[in-house]
Amino acid sequence: MTEEEKNENAEQAEANADAGGQPEPEAPAEGKAAEPEPEEKDAEPEAEAEEKAPDAAEPDAPAADADDEFEGLSWKERQRLLRSRESGAAGPERKPEERASERAARRRAAGVERKHHRAHRRQKHQAGTGTVPAERRAAGRKERLGIVISNKSDKTITVRIDSARRHPTYEKIVRRSNTLRAHDEQNEAGEGDTVRIVETRPLSKQKRWRLIEVLEKAK
């Protein structure tokens, strides 16, 4: 750049300064490329996002604290805790006698309301006919068939009762036998006979059965 061009630029800058304007930027040299200005607009959204990030995280903080506080509590305990935190409007100071009288009045009113409610329910309720009683039939006296194994005692025989049942678990036939003492008034049953006996009142310490008939005589 020549000295004449420099002088012209200086005079123009002074004129602009006197007019209240800003000096014009100098033209870049011919051998140097113009440097790009820094982009300030892109930096501003990033700064705003950083400022908004803490604000956005603030509403989540109380929820996390509440979850930690209510952890391990049942829904009843949570409801009781939340209700205790909601303080109502303060009322006037009252004496213990006034509180007791108000409490008694509330209880009386609640009792009257329960009484009316129960009376209304009784009026709406209709008694049912119920279940028809079942006819009871006497099972009758037990009868058993068995084999006489002893008739040595007078008017008394010992009868063996054999039974065979399938086992409920192992599906196997299980055979069992027990002995009963029966009253034989005529001493007509002998050893080996097949007899029928019937249940009766206690006749002695061990006799609770009585002979009905001899079905088959021993050979």
Q: What is the count of DSSP helices, taking H or I runs of 4+ residues?
A: 5
The percent range for helix content is 25-40%
CATH architecture of the domain at 143-216: Beta Barrel
CATH superfamily of the domain at 143-216: Nucleic acid-binding proteins
* CATH class category label of the domain at 143-216: Mainly Beta
| Rg (C-alpha, Å) | 57 Å
Shape: elongated
The neighbouring-strand order within the major sheet is 1-2-3-5-4
Structural class determined from secondary elements = alpha+beta
Overall pLDDT, averaged?
A: 80
In the CATH hierarchy, the third-tier topology of the domain at 143-216 is known as: OB fold (Dihydrolipoamide Acetyltransferase, E2P)
N-to-C SSE series? Answer: HHHHHEEEEE
Q: pLDDT under 50 segments (min length 5)?
A: 27-34, 53-57
Calculate the terminal CA-CA distance, rounded to whole Å. 158 Å
- Beta strand %: 15-25%
Q: How many strand segments?
A: 5
Biggest pleated sheet? 5 strands, mixed, barrel
